[in-house]
TrEMBL record:
Keywords, sorted A to Z: Aminotransferase, Pyridoxal phosphate, Transferase
Residue intervals of the Aminotransferase class I/classII large domain: 116-449
Native species: Plutella xylostella
Protein name: Aminotransferase class I/classII large domain-containing protein
Entry superkingdom: Eukaryota
Length: 461
């Protein structure tokens, strides 16, 4: 293998896309995640610039030589004689055949060499054909400005979050988050003991003007500036907001002005009920400031851990080193199933799946909205979520904790207290997070009736 090959391996491929030039793909087949308006004018970061974002811990990571050889031997093809790799022999694999059928009649079959490959180690970045497929899908869906980028298949976006935080965050450093955010992100943050700067939201999400004044104040006071903003822009967990394009553009502009990156966690991108095309941060990323996490957990299957990160090469290579150290690579079998499913379905089949998932969640959201209106109108306050799986409900109480763990539990209703969505779980919260995604339509009324009963019991105490 040549030095050039090794260089390619280390530098990764690039995900190029030119706005408006995707020939093979009509966005209406799925949804639209880019804007027809031009991407923001911004100066792209250079490899040198990225150095200031990379944590000291992450900068110490180095590629393992044997993993590089695995990648090289993958590229060299199957004929090379290899005394290099300490891999299992496929002769010990007990499986000979795997067949899955979808409800729509599509088939995934793995057998022979395909199955053997699906049971073997692969390069850290992921099953190469899946990596190519996801590069193209990401490029088609988001049409990002033409900067080098690449993808890394991760075990769920949770794993992407974990690696991204390790990549960027120094212990005790400041980090920007939505005021109420994803509990799994806080779990990642905790050991770093960061200064969490929660930016308030209204029912359309983060308020950019507040973000700007927070940043300006820190700058004036000479405080350490945050290196990144963690955002769930569509169907935020727990608030259900969908950040409108104007706010996304303004936040992106602030990222360029105050020099931070955007960690865009978008597992609910296909679960947007507004029917408004909304560009992702990736699609606005003319400066290379976005690490984007995609996940098919909510619309396909969380058990497959089907997810990927997209980032500029200087950052993606570091994420890859983390993945290599942590788990070598995502589950090959799951990647092989996903690849064949996406190939068999084509874009039309994927679109059908995504439309079906969105319609199912939308019907459940509408049913819970109607049931809450019928039973809880004078007991609580909420906005109907524009995306995702949650109602964020405010009660007229100081703290919901007792109510959740005593009254509701005794009456057979499981709830999540607002604390779970705050970094500081010890502070009182008047909020509840209600997930409608798993509740059947016919049970929604009972759920809201029970909730009303719980609130009334609590109020009467
Ligand atoms: N981010 C957010 C905002 C989530 O709500 C979730 C799942 N609840 C995740 C990440 C994790 O998803 P995955 O299954 O892809 O790891």
């Amino acid at each position: 293998p040549s030095a050039k090959l090794l260089k390619n391996v280390l530098e990764g491929h690039t995900l190029h896309s030119v706005r408006g030039v995707s020939q093979s793909f009509n966005y209406e087949d799925i949804f639209k995640f880019y804007s027809d308006a031009p991407a923001p004018a911004a100066t792209p970061l250079t490899d040198r610039d990225y150095e200031r974002f990379i944590s000291k811990r992450s900068a110490l990571r180095q590629p393992g030589l044997t993993r590089q050889i695995t990648q090289l031997s993958y590229q060299a093809g199957r004929d090379a004689v290899s005394l290099a790799e300490g891999m299992a022999s496929s002769a010990v694999f007990p499986f000979t055949h795997l067949r899955l059928e979808t409800s729509g009649g599509a088939e995934v079959t793995l057998e022979g060499e395909k199955l053997r490959a699906a049971l073997q180690y692969v390069p850290t970045q992921g099953l190469p054909d899946l990596v190519s497929h996801l590069r193209q899908l990401t490029s088609d869906l988001h049409r990002p400005p033409p900067l080098p980028r690449d993808v890394l298949v991760t075990s769920g976006s949770q794993s992407g979050l974990y690696m991204a935080v390790d990549l960027l965050l120094e212990p005790g450093a400041p980090v920007l988050v939505q005021e109420h955010s994803y509990t799994g992100f806080y779990s990642v943050l905790k050991p770093y003991q960061p200064e969490v700067i929660g930016i308030p939201e209204d029912h359309h999400g983060v308020i950019p003007e507040i973000l700007e004044s927070v940043l300006e104040e820190r700058l004036c006071k000479g405080q350490l500036m945050p290196k990144f903003f963690y955002l769930v822009p569509t169907g935020s967990n727990p608030t259900g907001t969908v950040l409108p394009e104007g706010r996304r553009r303004k936040i992106y502009e602030l990222a360029c002005r105050y020099d931070f990156l955007i960690l865009e966690d978008d597992p609910y991108m296909f679960v947007n009920y507004t029917d408004q095309p909304v560009p992702s941060f990736l699609s606005l990323d003319s400066a290379g400031r976005v690490i984007r996490l995609d996940s098919l957990s909510k619309v396909l299957s969380p058990g497959l851990r089907a997810a990927w990160a997209t980032a500029p090469p200087a950052l993606l290579q570091r994420l890859q080193l983390h993945q290599e150290a942590h788990c070598l690579h995502s589950c090959t079998l799951a990647m092989a199933i996903l690849l064949q499913l996406l190939q068999t379905w084509g874009r039309a089949g994927l679109a059908t799946q995504l439309r079906g998932a969105r319609a199912l969640y939308r019907a459940r959201r509408d049913a819970l909205a109607a049931a809450l209106r019928a039973h809880c109108a004078h007991l609580a306050h909420w906005h109907v979520p524009e995306g995702g799986m949650f109602f964020w409900v405010r009660l007229n109480v100081e703290d919901v904790r007792d109510m959740v763990f005593k009254t509701a539990f005794e009456k057979g209703l499981m709830l999540v207290p607002g604390q779970a969505c705050n970094y500081d779980t010890s502070a009182p919260s008047p909020h509840l997070r209600l997930a409608f995604s798993k509740v059947k339509l016919e049970d929604m009324d009972t759920a809201a009736r029970l909730l009303a009963d719980v609130i009334r019991t609590e109020q009467a105490k």
